[in-house]
Design goal:
The protein has about 425 residues and is an alpha+beta fold. It has two domains: about 45-290, Beta-lactamase (3-Layer(aba) Sandwich); about 300-395, D-Ala-D-Ala carboxypeptidase, C-terminal domain (Peptidoglycan synthesis regulatory factor (PBP3), Domain 2). It is built from ten helices and 17 strands. The protein has helices spanning about 1-25, 70-80, 95, 115-125, 130-140, 145-155, 180-190, 195-200, 275-290, 405-430; strands spanning about 45-50, 55-60, 90, 115, 205, 215-220, 240-245, 250-260, 260-270, 290-295, 300-310, 315-325, 330-335, 345-350, 355, 360-370, 375-395. The strands form five sheets. The protein has a six-stranded mixed β-sheet with strand order 14-16-17-12-11-15, with no helix packed on it. A five-stranded antiparallel β-sheet has the order 2-1-9-8-7, with helices on both faces. Helix 2 runs antiparallel to helix 4 and helix 5 (about 130-140) crosses helix 6 (about 145-155).
């Protein structure tokens, strides 16, 4: 008897397990057609959608870490924003001699001159510290002032837990960021065309200078971006990257990947040289295989049509129709099993558009959400106005007394008058008889 009951309980337990598994697999809130979350070796990491800033994976992403030479990404960006590529920079004594012995450099000497374009290649490919100093001094006068500009720019990008103390990333206890902040900084700078052009060069040469007759040869230090140096690890879908290392920071790595419309940012912090690229590849592959770009609409694609009114004597007359579109193209990165029909759409549109509105005017906004998460928002604009050949009266509530009710009043009075006259006439007629 006890054995029979036990067997029945086991059977019921298995049945419940099967039902639960079926529920989990069919639930729309679970990643179904996607990869398993990767295991990351580094102490901290983040995977971010480069377009929207959505976080697809994170590990200790909001903790403070030392960035080391990935700092040079924002140094390069500010140099690009403030300097002409064809102007010369001169290396000061401070730029050359204020650095730790044997730190990354290309052997520039005090008084030596190179072009800003050449300096940027040395900064990003070879991680040259004296070049970071020279560019900073050219932009802001001193490296201290430049560090303040770096910090302000980072905060403007939303990286408010970041503070920079120098342009190169050598250790300073007051020079820190978080993986999330570093991803935001990368998001703010990665689509700069000039920056991407520099990154597209696995090798580069600086010819002789005013103080040197020899050529300086540069090579991209990011293994995923250098087919010449490391063809086995090279990835065609990586468009930007920067390495970093100090004993306090460990190995740090920033990578931007692009596949079709999907653009991903990976930041690795407090990692090591043996596993940083393994971690980065795992996150990129997870992102590209689990997520896809979903186009929601294009500019000038009609979202809705709204009437345009003219007001005359307190009444609204519909004189035209307005085609309403989004101001920009909207696309979002979502799980591969999420489609446009699965999104919640919230549209806020001005009521009773009046004559005087013109094409291009902003008249509202639209927001796309999924499972309570805001995916994207855009302003709504009038893309086209089509005037009607004839107008139709429309009475705006609470503006004037409705002409409809006025006409009913007139009709009732007239009808009552006719009835009274009819009764009086009949009465008079019978009286004569």
């Amino acid at each position: 008897m006890l054995v029979t009951i036990f067997k029945k309980n086991i059977s019921s337990y298995r049945f419940i397990k099967i039902i639960l598994c079926m529920f989990i697999l069919t639930s729309s809130n679970i990643l179904v057609a996607t990869q398993k979350l990767p295991t990351i070796n580094a102490e901290a990491a983040i995977l971010m959608d480069a377009k929207t800033g959505s976080i697809l994976y994170e590990k200790n992403a909001y903790e403070k870490y030392y960035p080391a030479s990935i700092t040079k990404l924002i140094t390069a960006y500010l140099a690009i924003q403030n300097l002409n590529p064809n102007e010369y920079i001169t290396f000061s004594r401070h730029a050359v001699y204020s650095l730790e012995y044997n730190s990354s450099n290309i052997g520039m000497r005090e008084g030596e001159q190179i072009l800003v374009d050449q300096a940027l290649h040395a900064l990003l490919l070879e991680s040259a510290n004296e070049v970071a100093n020279a560019l900073a001094e050219r932009v802001s006068g001193t490296t201290e002032n430049f560090a303040k500009l770096m910090t302000k720019t980072a905060h403007d990008f939303g990286a408010t837990k970041t503070n920079f103390a120098n342009p190169h990333g050598l250790h300073d206890s007051n020079h820190y960021t978080t993986p999330y902040d570093m991803a935001l900084i990368t998001k703010g700078i990665y689509n700069n065309e000039y920056l991407l052009e520099i990154m597209d060069n696995p090798t580069y040469q600086i010819p002789s200078t005013n103080l040197s007759n020899s050529t300086t040869y540069l090579s991209q230090s990011h293994a995923l971006m250098n087919p010449v140096k490391d063809s086995q690890r090279y990835r065609e879908d990586v468009i930007l990257g920067k390495t970093g290392y100090t004993s306090q920071a460990g190995n740090t790595l920033v990578t931007v990947g692009k596949r079709g419309e999907v653009e991903l940012i990976v930041v690795i912090m407090k990692g090591n040289i043996q596993t940083n690229y393994i971690d980065t590849n795992a996150l990129l592959d997870y992102g590209f295989n689990s997520y896809s770009s979903l186009n929601l609409n294009s500019p000038n694609e009609i979202i809705t049509v709204a009437p345009l009114y003219s007001i005359q004597s307190g009444k609204l007359f519909e004189v035209a129709s307005c085609e309403i579109s989004t101001k920009d193209k909207i696309s979002v990165v979502v799980r591969s099993d999420v489609f446009k029909k699965d999104l919640d759409v919230f549209m806020n549109l001005e009521k009773n558009l009046r004559l005087g509105a013109k094409e291009g005017d902003t008249v509202g906004n639209i927001t796309y959400m999924h499972n309570g998460k805001n995916l994207a928002s855009s302003e709504l604009v009038i893309s086209k106005i089509k005037f009607k050949p004839a107008t139709t009266a429309y009475n705006e509530p609470n503006v004037v007394k409705s002409s409809y009710f006025f006409n009913i009043d007139v009709f009732v009075v007239a009808a009552v008058g006719i009835i009274i006259i009819f009764i009086f006439t009949r009465k008079k007629h019978y009286s004569k008889k």
